[in-house]
């Protein structure tokens, strides 16, 4: 096609389609990681204060059991009180002091510097997380055990999806039986699949020094690692209600020693391990994470830590976990508001579904908590993509479709710009009085085409007639094709050959070269 | 099963399942029509004021063209100014006066009194609407022309779905060629299918007196109709940008004469018939609806009118309408805030999707605008259920699934209750210190089981194992079965035989007796 072709003229339909089919430069994208949320406030200011006071009271009067000996020493050294009942209680002043010491300017780094996550204010980021034990095989309509390759593939897919901002390990490699091997391979599988920030979870402190060694290799030295730690550890440091997870606390200490940012994860289930009320579950999660913040800052003031209040829902009829409900969306949105109140970087779960397959239920459940979490200003929306079956299954096709879903949620977070230009009174006057009587094709309209509007990659906007002409495309089939396309392409995140050899010499890597 | 059976004991799993399988009495339901939204505010107070001022300026300086002669008389009589260019302009004081006169206490009545819609404050209601020309035949994976029977079936389905609060005619009967016959039959099809509030749309003023006659028959007399008008008219009284729809204004006048509440519907498309910016599209819609409010209140001060700012989105690449986007959700949520500012009952579109079938895209798009509309406090969320293909297709199965989807959105609107009881400090202390270490089965937990939690009717919460044991149920199949069950049951909304005969004697009704 030459430049004189009429369809290349500015404003032509095919020119517009073409303009959109080339990927936009990052600074031109209408949405990006880290847009500010917070326009949705599920709690009043008084409610927030009540929850905070209740959390302080819980810490002061109930406290937490089961700290490891090291933790007892650290916490009592900081001013906490060990009771005869073995519970550690936290004076209010200690908590307030720790909050004052806590790092409020956390950046979670990417490996290539292009996807750093600035967690200040109410900036919103979406990513994967979890520990699913199944891979959802859409093709075969079945759940099967998840493997290391599945995890690596998930990281590779995330790497090319614009709206997945970080990759916390969403499933476990059930084909590796040895715990240490499994966790070290998980680091390899994630970091060799994506240059975005990666999250992992260690189950034993003894693994951490080995992991740190691998991180130094990947970073190109200890200094480089410490300068831009591109991996954080998801630390289930409590066993709700109000007990420290002894081993996980030791892991946390080891992570801090190794310069690994920590996610202080309190995953209570409302009605089982947390109160059944939304307010109660949020209160307990806040109390637990405040205890974690005291712990971290007593060891290393200002160590990057994410306030991970992750209360989950429960189907009270069956006692089964449920993550796709409206109650879940409220739990996470309410937590986001508490994070903003504390002024610390925070995260919670959003975007997971109870559905087994990427169907209509998955769509509505994933959107509900994703968009509400974003509007509430959640810094880190974990489990935002691909997570099915109440966290038991991870689905690559669903992950791909979530890029559209989350893109839409991000558009909502971006919100409504009101200015003289956007109020458009001048346009209205021109168009109505002596003008064409419509806004189609005006300079102002075309100027907004890319700047303001998010277009789905797989979502369908055809008319019924076009849909028939296209052979009635099926959403899931489009996602499958995309998955195959991504996985057939050589990943840009791959380690170079020398580094890869070096890692494989030191560690037993289960993925093929 | 006798009462001594262990599984009947309080707290037993099957007892709890059983408790939930019986339908809850209305006052015990955790969600209901008319819960207050408004915790999500996409616009700042200053933004709201700017939009209002811009709308006033547009009315004052641009005005609206194409009023019918009667409208010119009515509006200039009230203080509007007819310009040499044929446009009617509205002094600011006239608009403010009309706002002061407008009815702020509108109730949209149901036929049986059980589903009246109180539109004061930011009470939220969800229902159908639209003028789809296709029925989405899920079974056949096809779109076909919609019929009167399809419309009647939709009304019957809505009648038994708890979370569909009103039934505005969602599709047109393409099997009736005569306009008047079609519209009169649409009233019959809707009102004989549901006792909930019904909405309709007349295309010619001459039809209205006949419709009123039918409404008097159904109500049991003119007085009874005027006492509780159970049907409103959706009045596309403007052709955006800023032109009156001449014939529709005449329809509106006739409706007011007949005591029919009106929905002042301004359905601009951002980028085509409204500015491409969200703020601009909201501004123009507000200006147009304010003109409508002046019109209505100049004829009959206090006549029930709904401020129907319905700006829609456009895919600026193709010029095609799109209703499922994040931009759409922001348009409608922003409008909700303007309605609250004006203090008048308002409505906008939410819950429609661009997808052809009830798939994952349909789920995420329908949830996005439904939940954001609700959280923003939209009194009437129109098009909330069953609407596909950018308003071109209506789907019964999707409508059924929307009952779960909207139920979840309503749970979010209900929000988080914070009180000493819900903060649950006492429970936390009991459970943690000397208690069982969990909240399962406590009195407080069980007490919340029905009071707080919304359980999906069709949404799946099984584990992968249970899912396999159940034969891997498919969501859409469940909806299909439910549809068949509903339509095989004799409708409680059916007219009694005498009334039905009376109506059929007077009107040519196309539905079989």
TrEMBL record, chains A, B:
GO biological process: methanogenesis; methylation
EC number in record: 2.1.1.-
Basic and acidic residues: bias regions: 15-25
Keyword set, alphabetical order: Methyltransferase, Transferase
InterPro entries: MttB-like_sf, MTTB_MeTrfase
Family indicated by similarity: Belongs to the trimethylamine methyltransferase family.
Name of the protein: Methyltransferase
